[in-house]
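Standup notes, structure subgroup. Blocker cleared on the adenosine-5'-diphosphate input:
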Amino acid sequence: MKANVIPMRAQNEAAQTCDLAARLRRRIVGQQEAIDAIVPYVELYEAGLAPEGRPVGVFLLLGPTGTGKTRTVEALAESLHGSEKNVLRIDCGEFQLEHEVAKLIGAPPGYLGHRETQPMISQHKLNATSSDRSSLSIVLFDEIEKAAPSLGRLLLGVLDKAWLKLGDNTTVNFERSLIFMTSNLGAREMMAELTDRYGFASAHPGDSSETKLHRIGLGAVRKRFSPEFVNRIDRTLTYSPLSREAFDAILDLQLEALQRHISIRLGPSSFAIKLTSAARRFLLEEGTSAEYGARELKRVIHRHLIQPMARLVLDKTAAPGSTVWIDRSSFAALLTFHSKSDGNLAA
Ligand SMILES: Nc1ncnc2c1ncn2[C@@H]1O[C@H](COP(=O)(O)OP(=O)(O)O)[C@@H](O)[C@H]1O
Ligand SMILES: [Mg+2]
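Run returned:
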């Protein structure tokens, strides 16, 4: 009888991966293909069936700027470990020169400055990104096209054998890791393709254009990276440009997060925020574009909503428990704030 009892930890992990897809869908708008491709690799690991001697999965995320590539990796960390910070993140833009790549693995002992060059990647740092919820580590090489060529060579060993030799001759094991690389290689050609077909304002790719975008991305990757490198990638996923409806849903996600932030930070003095459709349109017009996707939206919300709202809080003009209605000013490119009970509070 005992053999039928499934250990508690295994039960928890099974339940967790079951709603992993649902949790990712709540955080990432659209990009269903990417979610569907990633989840099975997590399941493979949690089931104990991931192959030995290589990372659990190696993904290359391609597509236009601001469509959710980096966000996907953060959302996976959030869903798996409870925080988007549980990622060993390498911003490849910081490793554009060959000598900067050396900082990743640290200098050999005896080298001048050895003590100061602690490697940026280490087994300890990798393990620290896992959690008591899951022992799977998430590694992100963000915007790999920006890195010096030697980073590609260094990555080969990681992708192929799941290990990296550091400057001090110790090794880092990536067998319990999912490796993500993001890149906008080919993104410009993808945008040109969409502009030709649909015009800039309506980038709604149909099925055939999604395949075409994927081919453009793969072509650009093959031009930039060696065949060995490309062969070691398990899945290349091409992110689609976001539609108007997707931008709208992303705005909802960010406003919900802002409301949670207000409630947690202000506690009993917190208030509800509600936006008119004109205010929403304003934020979307300022914060989203075909060229940068939703990348600017957070900044625009910060500038036009959060910063003016700080004034309301400091002036104690937003009554605790009230609803603050946010509208677009008819005179300037600004939002206005009205409390439900007190009339106009600020412009
Ligand atoms: N598909 C998406 N779902 C949810 N949020 C998104 C999506 N795409 C972009 N965003 C928002 O825009 C920001 C920038 O997206 P990001 O993932 O960094 O873009 P990139 O594709 O260039 O890596 C994210 O932090 C997130 O707030
Ligand atoms: Mg990114």
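Discussed briefly. Residues 342-347 have pLDDT under 50 and may be disordered.
Next: hand off to the docking folks.
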